[in-house]
Amino acid sequence: MKKILFLAVSLVLAWGMTSCAKKSVVHAPSIAVFITGIIADSPSYAHVAEGVTDAVNEYNAALPEEKKARLYIMEAGTNQAEWASKLTALAATGEYDVILSSNPSLPELVAPISAQFPKQKFIFLDASAEGNSNLYTVSYNQRDQAYISGYMAGLYSKTHKVGLIAAQEYPIMNTILYPYFAKGALDAFPGTTAEFRVVGNWYDATKGAEIARAMYDAGIDMILPICGGASQGVIATAREKRMHIVWFDENGFKKAPGVIISCCMTKHALCAKETTFAYLMGTIPWGTVRSVGFKDGYVSYFDDDPAYISNVPQDIREKMAVLVKALRTGEKVLPQKLEN
Asked: Which helix (H) or strand (E) holds 16?
């Protein structure tokens, strides 16, 4: 009787364990990429989407269907006033373990959202914040990138007047991108001045063209546009007025051969891919910020492109090579903050 009872209990336990195992659901990771703009208008956002997609595809390659990571890419549009509500709505669905994005303004914007949805994880590239256990950020050292662009503009300018056209003002633009661009131009040729203008959005090509035309009238012959789709208007004016452009965030020589004479980019795709892999493997150090820059291989200057070699005089290329090497090796280190 005892043996029969023991066997019955064992069978019940075994059935219960099997039943629970059948009912348990394998939780596959889910990622939402929140694009603060339109991918087609922004090389940097396109690179973020590309990097995350590559990481997810490689992660999923050898996994059964039920364990594959799920990816959703959302374009939030260029109206910054709508980003908070759209980000809140995305978090409210509870469908995604992590929301990944790239914009320096996001940590401040997401603070109340994170408090409202304490289980939601966020990863922001090109941003910096510490102390929030549900947030991880990666900050690029864009001092190097802006300084290199300014140095090239200063060397190439014939009028010794250069300009930066921004889509909007935001902390990194005001404290890093424009100041270090201006510093690079001044260091390249003493007395060079750098003008700063704002489009007001990331898409108005007509306004971009108007600002570039006003800069030309003021004697400026070199422009750095960081204004998304509005850059197309800047390019059009530069062609018309025979101005030149130093380009940010991608190899853009083919966009305007002979007009764009320098390209420097942050490797958003690489950073997005590596960060996504870290998340999928469970190694993200939540609540911290990672800083990467030229020395780490996250900033590139395209000095081997045929368009660069054919359009930039050798003496300028040689000076740029010295600067790029010094920044890459750490021989030259830019200050964390510039004096006014």
From this structure: helix 2-23
Between residues 338 and 98, which one has the greater pLDDT?
Answer: 98
Could you tell me which of 9, 67, 52, 5 has the C-alpha nearest to residue 273?
52
Which distant-in-sequence residues (6+ apart) come within 8 Å of 64 by Cβ?
none
Q: In one letter, which amino acid is 306? A: P
- SS3 (DSSP) at 273: helix
- 41-92 pLDDT, tens per residue? 777 889 999 999 999 999 999 999 999 999 999 999 878 889 999 999 999 9
For residue 288, what are its two tokens? Answer: 């911290």
Beta bridge partners of 32: 72, 99
Residues 76, 87: Cα–Cα separation, whole Å = 8
Decide: 33 and 74 in contact? Cβ < 8 Å. yes
Residue 135: the pLDDT is: 98
pLDDT digit string, tens, across residues 102-130: 988 899 899 999 999 999 999 999 888 99
- What count of other Cβ atoms lies within 10 Å of the Cβ of residue 286? 13
Residue 208 token pair = 């971009």
As a whole number, mean pLDDT of residues 264-293 equals 94
Contacts of 71 (CB under 8 A, 6+ apart): 30, 31, 32, 33, 52, 53, 56
Instruction: Identify residue 309 by its one-letter amino acid code.
Output: I
What is the chain's Cα-based Rg?
Answer: 25
Global pTM reads 0.77
Query: If you ran DSSP here, which 8-state letter would residue 82 be given?
Result: G
3-state secondary structure of 138: strand
Q: Which residue has the tokens 């108005």?
A: 204
**35 within 8 A of 74, measured Cβ to Cβ:** yes
3-state helix, strand and coil shares in percent for the chain, rounded to the nearest 5 = 50, 20, 30
Q: Which residues pair with 225 in a beta bridge?
A: 165
**What φ, ψ does residue 211 adopt, rounded to 5°?**
-65, -40
Q: What per-residue confidence (pLDDT) applies to 294?
A: 83
Instruction: For residue 340, name the pLDDT band (cuts at 50, 70, 90).
Output: low
In angstroms, how far apart are the furthest CA atoms of the chain? Answer: 104
Who contacts 338 (Cβ-Cβ below 8 Å, separation ≥6)? 179, 180, 183
